[in-house]
Amino acid sequence: MKGIELSSLYYATYGKNMIREKFPDYEKRIAVGLVGQGSECFMYDDILSTDHDFGPGFCMWLTDEDYAAIGEELSDMYDTLPKEFLGFKRMETKRAGARVGVFRIGDFYENFIGSPDVPTTNTQWLRIPERLLATATNGKVFRDDLGEFSRIRNALLKFYPEDVRIKKIAARAAIMAQSGQYNYSRCMKREDDVAASLALSEFVSSTMSMIYLLNKRYAPYYKWLHRGLSELPKLSEAGGMLKELVDMPSQSANWKNLDEITFLYGVNFKDSKVEMIEKICSMVLKELVNQGLANDGDAFLELHVDEIIEKISDMKLRIMHVMDA
Question: If you placed Cys at 206, which of 61, 138, 163, 175 could pair as Cys (CB 3.0 to 4.6 Å)?
Fold first, then answer.
């Protein structure tokens, strides 16, 4: 059973009646659901997920005024609900903190995005990591008659303002070019396999972030980055290519005793990872062109960074360092 389903059934079985009987005047003011940290909130949970911070539970979100009036009492009543349900018992770890229970709406959002309400400036939006916005907007809301929790949620789900999205896309293009198309080869030529592996890691991470940005979806926590690619309408096929890139054996033998002519012109030289990197970058460039963010041409993404930046209207964002995003 998925955690979202377990949470919904637990609320329907115990939580709904508890709220109705003990807090009838607030029944239509309490938002209920399961949103936040945990694989179950992304619906990525499996049997391995059940060993910690998983089990029956749900969130209740209150306005500041309502929290002051009933927050403590509601928390106490929530704690009296059965600890086991359908064979599951919640096991909370110290590091995870409280993931279910009663929250102020403003506190809940501020914990993830640094603000109790929707950001109002591009700079504020830019400083919120994608993974935290993904966490603040995942899961499911079971009930929200008042609509205050969902008002903020729905505004965040509209995604970054376009100038912020483009700024981030420019940064990802620069990093993809620097790490994958440039530094990987340089590190391999120097026979520095560790640095080359780090360059590939940067490339893979930035590429996945780029794909989420091109889909206008928030990229989740790194553990779920690759898994989530398959759910995206654009460039989802890149997920398989990235896996193939990661699974490829070391290319070190191909770089031994490599002379300058061979390196520059590729004479009798082949690195499968370089080839895959270029294929992926070509796909990304095609989508950038489709979205009107770049012009067709050489797939070396660094050559397109400036034209992407030119699409930004907010001058404050435009003049920032390209990788400051």
Answer: 175
